Amino acid sequence: MRAMVYRGPYRVRVEEKDVPVVEHPGDAIVRVTRAAICGSDLHLYHGMMPDTRVGHTFGHEFIGEVHEVGSSVQNLQPGDRVMVPFNVFCGTCFFCARGLYSNCHNVNPNATAVGGIYGYSHTCGGYDGGQAEYVRVPFADVGPSIIPDWLDDDDAVLCTDALPTGYFGAQLGEIDEGDVVVVFGSGPVGLFAARSAWLMGAGRVIVVDHLDYRLEKARTFAHAETVSFTEHGDVVRHLKHLTDGLGADVVIDAVGAEADGAVLQHVTSAKLKLQGGSPVAVNWAIDTVRKGGTVSVIGAYGPLFSAVKLGDAMNKGLTLRMNQCPVKRQWPRLLEHLRAGYFKPSDVITHRIPLEHIAEGYHMFSAKLDGCVKPIVVPGAV
């Protein structure tokens, strides 16, 4: 089969790999029909995530058709159209029993922290991802769900990570009716977090970024006010000014490890790899939220040290909430919203890339070329 493979920082290409096989009676083999490149894939592409091995196939956002199932799989059969959450999870451990599917204890040798994630390095279990023609899906009776007939492929693929993660970020903020919500980052996850904040009762939503085309998307898709941090010497001071000097009730960090905005932090993290990620966005969030407010962190960071302002958070009496999204827990309510027509996830898609051209897709997305907000990968397309 054809699959994207990692060859080192900024180097990916498409190669022949063996079609995956059933290794356990609970496995399914899925033929991928849609995948996506996620902003957090760029952390891998840039060499930010430890133990990203040469030959690894990325891609934690994908849907497809069941090709083969193991002997114990009961809920799926060949031909079923399925969406697969980015979490690999067993469904039975201490954490899964509490709905913490992203923290499953049985799927990752490094599970003292994160559980398993498709295509996200050996730090997250070493599972090959869906930027390929086929992918092995463990615990097939637990993770994948059959895609409803009314949900099209482009919307379904965004239900595997970007949409539920954004929704989860707003959920973690415990938004009360009328709250002022600030979202740092207007990539797909930030856009979905901002749009979801309205569903949860926000009275005002402000999105912060520095790329004009993404801020325009925040205005048109998320119906948010926007702030470009490059236009203000002190963006925190400006946001305080916009919120009567108090700060926002809830701030969501949808940026993560490669935040711009402070040269020293960006160099020590993104360039020298001395931190698990630039803490600029999360520190701006701590500074921007009002005393007694809530900071929600859904941007991805590596496992190393980061210079986060915990003292300020403590002295302000903040609530900090964060995790990788337990995707399947979000699906029932999200699918209700989508079927009711509250919004259409695929509105954020800007590019469709044949799998054979995925190296160009990564470069375009990484370099922020051609107004790229969300690229979808289509195996078999030319």
Report on this model:
The protein is of the alpha/beta class and 382 residues long. It has 2 domains: 2-161 and 326-378, Alpha-Beta Complex (Quinone Oxidoreductase, Chain A, domain 1); 162-322, Rossmann fold (3-Layer(aba) Sandwich). 26% of the residues lie in helices and 23% in strands. The chain contains 11 helices and 17 strands. Strands 3, 4, 5, 8, 9, 16 and 17 form a 7-stranded mixed sheet that branches. The chain has a 6-stranded parallel sheet with strand order 12-11-10-13-14-15, with helices on both faces. α3 (162-172) packs across α10 (327-339) and α6 (235-242) packs parallel to α8. The protein is globular. The two termini are 16 Å apart. Mean pLDDT is 93; it is low at 261-270.
Quick recap:
With 382 residues, the protein is of the alpha/beta class. The protein is built from eleven helices and 17 strands. The chain has helices at residues 39-45, 153-158, 162-172, 188-199, 212-220, 235-242, 263-271, 280-288, 310-315, 327-339, 358-366; strands at 2-8, 11-16, 28-36, 62-69, 81-84, 87-88, 116-117, 134-137, 145-146, 180-184, 204-209, 225-228, 248-253, 289-297, 319-322, 351-354, 375-378.
Overview features:
Rossmann fold, six-stranded parallel beta sheet, globular, 382 residues, 11 helices, seven-stranded mixed beta sheet, Quinone Oxidoreductase, Chain A, domain 1, 2 domains, alpha/beta
The top level CATH class name of the largest domain: Alpha Beta
Sheet/helix structural class: alpha/beta
Distance between the termini: 16 Å
Write the element-wise H/E pattern from the N-terminal end onward.
EEEHEEEEEEHHEHEHEHEHHEHEHEHE
Helix-residue proportion: 25-40%
Question: Which parts are unreliable, with pLDDT below 50 for 5 consecutive residues or more?
Answer: 261-270
- Quaternary status: single chain
The rounded Rg comes to 20 Å
Integer average pLDDT:
93
- Could you describe the largest sheet, including whether it forms a barrel? 7 strands, mixed
Secondary structure tally: strands: 17
What overall geometry do the principal axes of the alpha carbons give?
globular
Tell me the CATH topology of the largest domain.
Answer: Quinone Oxidoreductase, Chain A, domain 1
CATH architecture group name of the largest domain: Alpha-Beta Complex
Strand fraction band? 15-25%
Tally of contiguous helical segments: 11
When the domains are counted, the total is: 2
Look at the structure and name the CATH superfamily of the largest domain: Medium-chain alcohol dehydrogenases, catalytic domain
